[in-house]
């Protein structure tokens, strides 16, 4: 699954540009290729630039503090908007999703690389990859209309017995951050599994056989050889999963955004993430006068995912440097 | 590896410091159980979702009208109409997206594998990674600021396609790049040795060898963008009628059809959004499975 792992290396293969003849065909073709590469770079910079250029006027007109004021009143008479509530729900739901998904994904990756019989491993891996093919809106309607009834009992029980913690305080709303986190966890599971699988499969067999030869059980072999080798890859995979969870829009919108209600810190409250806030207010995009506030929120989301993805990339690059 | 994993055979006598061997065996068994359980947990949602969508959506699809009619003139409460407008809308948008994204993606991959060295190549590779992580809603907002705010155009299906291009490019780049890297260097060198220019070598030797892998990447990329809803919410307001012109008026699509009907609590709408969800899943899964099958016919393998 190279397509969802989203990282690659630049091998210094000796194909070199000395192969180019400098004739017109070569110059045009090389130009097209280089041009496409530059286009991609410009594209990403343009995303940041355009969002910034539209967000700044809105931020200047903003009568509230964008980073600290917990209000969102955007109408024709004036704009007062701040992001702390959005940031809280976005980060908490994504972190929860990661806490649920990472252990399962690591175990699934171990199953696929170390436990499953060879003939079953690749169809089984394909099944997990198929989870990534389900459109997010289908996750949304499944999560809200089908899966939710099965979780209400558990959520009520948690709220009743652990309600004294701020995070699990009742009452339980209809669509909760908790439910959204579970669905997000399912959605990012295939991404984390795919990358973890790749790195676990790369464990040098000398390490594994060495452990086994010293009398280690299979689990001890995994703990001492496979997991230490794969840890940076798993961390990087988790960050990519986190990035996906932070930006997930429609499933979250359907699950928590139906009735956000009054903001509470509890996981059992509804709420809005950056993405679901923007999507929930998509009707506003008919006239461009009020969208500045939402573009500012989108810019924050872009910065957030940029940082997370860049960190994931740095970690995996560093692993590469030491793994040879 | 299975021959090497007979964990119970450990002839060395346990030293007094070591825990007894049974403890180690129990831990090993527990780990095995945990790993198998985790896999089951991971598969349950997939089976559950597929079952839900098929059992709730099949009814709508069995009606031949579903494939031929639109929702024009049909209110949420009345039964009838079809999804033709949304299916055709989704297909048109996917086709336009592919036409724009595939050349850019393939050429970028060619640059990274065949040309790119040094700082620019690093920057391109990094930016492709960042693009992979750009949330679809951010892509939609970017195209909105470009298309509506800057150029002053109306919201039309073509703008949706532009946002989807942003999401498809990294998928195409990464899969093409992987495939191009698998093409053996000897093929390139043999071609150069015959005096073939570099661009012809890439066109006639490298790309054909990697072709099926590239097709797989394109199909998987298409499967991803067809299911995207966020750009449609921002840039492509839904329509109930058939519209095949991406530059004028609103165009329907399956995700927006689901979204438009889902808050209605009447049976007719309920059937329709699950029907649309099943149609969408069938399209996406078909592309996905086709992609996998084609990748089997790969000339280069890892």
UniProtKB/TrEMBL annotation, chain A:
Keyword Transmembrane: yes
Function: Part of the binding-protein-dependent transport system for phosphate; probably responsible for the translocation of the substrate across the membrane.
A GO molecular function held by the record: phosphate transmembrane transporter activity
Organism: Kineosporia babensis
Transmembrane feature ranges: 28-52, 86-112, 124-147, 172-195, 291-316
Gene: pstC
Recorded GO CC terms: plasma membrane
Family, similarity comment: Belongs to the binding-protein-dependent transport system permease family. CysTW subfamily.
Topology class, membrane: Multi-pass membrane protein
Subcellular compartments: Cell membrane
CDD domains, per database record: TM_PBP2
Ranges for domain ABC transmembrane type-1: 87-312
Pfam families registered for this protein in UniProt: BPD_transp_1 (PF00528)
Name of protein: Phosphate transport system permease protein
GO term, biological process aspect, one: phosphate ion transport
UniProtKB/TrEMBL annotation, chain B:
DNA-binding is among the record's keywords: no
Native organism: Kineosporia babensis
Membrane topology (UniProt): Multi-pass membrane protein
GO BP term, pick one: phosphate ion transmembrane transport
Chief localisation class: membrane
Gene Ontology molecular functions: phosphate transmembrane transporter activity
Domain ABC transmembrane type-1: 87-291
Name of the protein this chain belongs to: Phosphate transport system permease protein PstA
PROSITE patterns assigned: ABC_TM1 (PS50928)
Function according to Swiss-Prot or TrEMBL: Part of the binding-protein-dependent transport system for phosphate; probably responsible for the translocation of the substrate across the membrane.
Keywords assigned: Cell membrane, Membrane, Phosphate transport, Transmembrane, Transmembrane helix, Transport
A GO CC term attached to the entry: plasma membrane
